[in-house]
Amino acid sequence: MNLQRPNGNDATGTFNRSKSIVPCSGLCSRCVDGCRGNCEVFKATFRGRELIYPGPFGDVTAGGDKDYPVDYSHLNIQGYALGAKGLPNGEVGTPDNARFPNVSTECAYGWDSKVAMNVPIFTGALGSTEIARKNWDHFAVGAAVSGVTIVCGENVCGIDPRLVLDKNNMVIEAPDMDRRIEAYKKYHTGKGEILIQMNVEDTRLGVAEYIINKHKIETIELKWGQGAKCIGGEIKVNTIERAMELQKRGYIVTPDPMDPVIQAAFNDGAIHEFERHSRLGFISEDGFMAEVERLRALGYKRITLKTGAYGLRELAMAMKWCSKAKIDLLTIDGAPGGTGMSPWRMMEEWGMPSIYLHSAAVEFAQILESQGERVPDLAFAGGFSSEDGVFKALALGAPYVKAVCMGRALMIPGMVGKNIDQWMKENNLPKTVSEFGSTPEEIFVCYEAVKEIVGAKEIKNIPLGAIGIYSYSDKIRVGLQQLMAGARCFNTDSITRNELMSLTEECAKVTKIPYLMECGREEALSILKG
Fold first, then answer.
1. Is the separation of the CB atoms in 231 and 254 below 8 Å?
2. Do residues 123 and 195 share a domain?
């Protein structure tokens, strides 16, 4: 098993000098006095706490790279030559109607009031990190024209430089939140939605009241955590004035910008950035139920919950309480996760990996159902980036999982499209792009499809990152149609756990998906002996 070595990683801008590494520590087997670097211990010697985070902040998203004993690659997808499920009006499959383009990838989530999406994917929470802020228009417009949900993450109001608070420290103007909501709504096609995530700081600032009163937002998301970390949301700021401003708003800011020693170090040029942290959330059943009722009283149609890679106790609490509270969607995010700003060692070493956590969620859902309790709609998150991963998540979690939450995978096309736009303006397209042309119409295979959605006049206002996200979503859609057709599942509700097989006995033990040499064995033997 190739586990991650904890002393050099591109995410922290570090590397080992030697090819011979001590497995347990990640240190070079020979540490030479006079070495000029650049392992993590070397760099931490003079940059200290900066080595906790991947960087450079605002320009990267990072994903943990620890190799776990079992992951989704240890599942394979079944293909069938007999029968078809999920065809319209209960039709029997034939070569003429059971064609892969006829597969419906639409899905829906919600307890009573459903939200439909064109593809069973939606964005992870794009909150207060700089990479989310500066790329928001690409992300939001891309999700809107693709007909999928976008989650606007925590702390967006709290870090807005133009935020206006009343005498009770409650939001009365939040221009960046306004911009984010309006960007999505302008191109919303009727599928998917924008939902706003709320943490401890957002609750104190009255974000829920602001967004429903001003923007009539229908869905709000409570947050217990995420797969990338077990600590509150974090960003970096690079001026001491900004650090002081956020501290005055009630955030935890480290190092303390009010400390004269820190101020002196900043003036010396030794310290050139500060971290803004959210408080840890603490949950209780009574508190959770009370908050859900408070939000419903404000007028929200749907309430969702995002939880992180906690252990079985917290998973059970989330599922049981969401059932009792009639939560519309529970997103379960496994380790190691991706991030715009999380402690790197925490990403690598904390929490339950996705497939273990998701397998336990299915087991717990079955227990709730056997007790006569309704299981809320679920979404799985934690390292998905392709159509096969989406299919496996839907199948492993069937019939409870309705969609997959994607973090970095849905951000990358937005950033690539934005950069293509910039490269074209600079006449500096890389060969990987210019081989397809030199104009948006030539480069983006889905340009005309987006033009059809928004209109010939409006297409010039669509950021190219949005067209990138549409193209990526279309790739997921078509690839998913092909996999589903091969498994003879012609809509997402027809996908079952029988569509998977475990490649190893350990995977079978974790997932309860049978080992491939046992899948369908009884039926096969009955055919042979019949």
1. no
2. yes
Reading phi first (left if > 0) and then psi (alpha if -120 to 50, else beta), residue 347 is in alpha
Q: Is residue 453 part of a domain?
A: no
Looking at residue 235, its pLDDT comes to: 85
Is there a single domain that holds both residue 221 and residue 99? yes
pLDDT value for 1: 46
Note the pLDDT tens digit of each residue in 343-366: 888 888 899 999 999 999 999 999
Instruction: Look up the domain containing 381 and give its range.
Output: 72-233+278-412+488-494
Q: What is the domain count for the chain?
A: 2
* pLDDT tens string 142-178: 999 999 999 998 889 988 999 999 999 999 999 999 9
Cβ pair 120, 492 in contact under 8 A? yes
Range list of β-strands (E), 324-467: 329-333, 338-339, 378-381, 401-406
Residues 328, 377: Cα–Cα separation, whole Å? 6
CA separation, residue 291 to residues 204, 300, 305 (Å): 12, 12, 12
**Whether pLDDT at 58 is above 80:** no
Residues near 206 by beta carbon (within 8 Å), at least 6 away in sequence: 170, 171
- Say what the pLDDT of residue 79 is: 94
- Strands 401-406 and 378-381, by their bridges, are parallel
Quote the pTM value.
Answer: 0.93
Output the pLDDT for position 5: 65
Domain assignment present for 522: no
Contact 396, 365 (CB under 8 A): no
Alpha-carbon distances, residue 412 vs 130, 288, 415, 471, 473 (angstroms): 14, 34, 5, 12, 12
pLDDT at 230: 80
Distance CA 4, CA 348 (A): 8
Residue range 192-206: mean pLDDT, rounded: 93
For residues 162 and 294, state if they share a domain. Answer: yes
- The verdict on 163 and 36 lying in the same domain is no
Only one residue has tokens 């006095």, namely 33
Q: What percent of the chain has pLDDT over 70?
A: 99
Calpha distance 283→256 (Å, rounded): 28
**Residue of 51 and 156 predicted with greater confidence:** 156
Both tokens of 526, joined, read 């009955």
Contact 381, 485 (CB under 8 A): no
What tokens does 403 get?
A: 């969609």
Give me the DSSP letters along 181-218.
HHHHHHT--SSS-EEEEE-HHHHHHTHHHHHHHHH---
257: cis peptide before it, omega within 30°? no
- Residue 102 sits in a domain whose CATH number is 3.20.20.70
